[in-house]
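Many introductory courses stop at the sequence. We go one step further.
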Amino acid sequence: MMKTIRQLREERGESQHQLAEVAGVRSEQVEAWEQGLARPSVVSLRALTEHFAVDEAEIDLDPCEPSSLSEQVLDALEPHW
C-alpha cells in the first residue's frame, strides 16, 4: 500500500523539521511535499526512501489525488491490525 510522506513521517513520530534535516531541505519544503504543492528532488527522494526504508513506488507523491479504484480495493484487502 502506498503511503504519503506525511503518513510515513507521522508513523515515526517525527516533526516536519526533523524530516527536513534528514532530507537536507527546509521544513517549508516538507510541508509543500505533504500538501502536494511540490515533489521531492531525486536526491531528497532517495534520502526519504532510505530514511523510511521503503521503495520509491511505495511513496504517494500526489496526496491530494484520490486513490484509484484498484488502490482502494488493495487497501481494503490488506490486513489492518
